[in-house]
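Working notes for the structural subgroup meeting. M.R. asked for a predicted model of this chain before we commit to crystallization trials. I am recording the input and output together here so anyone reviewing the notebook later can reproduce the run.

Input as submitted:
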Amino acid sequence: NIDDIFLGCYIKKMFMRFIFMVTKFFLAVSMGIFVFTFILLFRNTLFSRSPDKTLPSTYQLPYEEVNFYNKDKLKLKGWLIFREENTPVIILCHGLGANKSDLLGIAKFISDAGYNTFLFDFRGHGESQGRFTSLGYLEQRDLECAIDYIEQRQGLEKTSIGILGVSMGAAVAVITAAKDKRIKAIVSDSSYQDLYSSLLRHAEVFYHLPRMPLGFFLRLAYLARFGIDPKRVSPCQAISAISPRPVLIINGASDIRVTAENTKVLFENSNNPKELWIIPGAGHAEGSNRYYEEYRKIVLEFLSKNLQTPGSYGN
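Returned structure, recorded in token form:
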């Protein structure tokens, strides 16, 4: 009858209104979460850079200040600690929020062992140009151009190149080495497994944010900011391509940012020749400071075995 028809239309109308209101609410909440996530990501890619804490001369290391440009036409600044022509060069890559001076302790023992050493600031760090960091994606271009500079440098054109990276610098080193055969040996200290899982881990540890639904919006925000899915910024996916070149993977057993389990997955995905050192009691990127002598010994043994050695590492 007519009453039933009107009742049916009314129910249908109310149902459609309910669906519309729920959809509107869902879109508003989603947009709010996306804006929050984008701001959070933006804040963590744009920060006050820290100046150099000290100079190579503090470590009795003679050095030359170097300028070179990356593919985005940003001027990058570095230090070349020169020992001998066509002796292997070890390029040191710092972590997020750090700069080249943070790796001078490592540079000291590498230089003392007879290697040429090159330290530089990634974009948005230290003395280099650039307003932001991409947390490991665009920085690959910086490392590639650092290698270009070494290859064009008089006296180093025929040298072998090794990389030691710490934290973000380790991730950049692994991914770059997988596609750049000029890199002959890699030391990865505290690299993340992939950028997506690293972003989630840091959001969880430092901001106490849930992985769901944050993960979806983090991927979307990073894609909007840098044009790539952070899951594709993945040392874990890249590392198998480094073989037959050697890789040494280091991490602290007490690292809450990049867990030892994360590092074991990275090691399992790599191919021989490979070595793993989980440092008991060490937190994130603490190995070279807390266990300096052991760190020195293990790194130099690795380099001595796998690069044309300039002399006895023990001297």
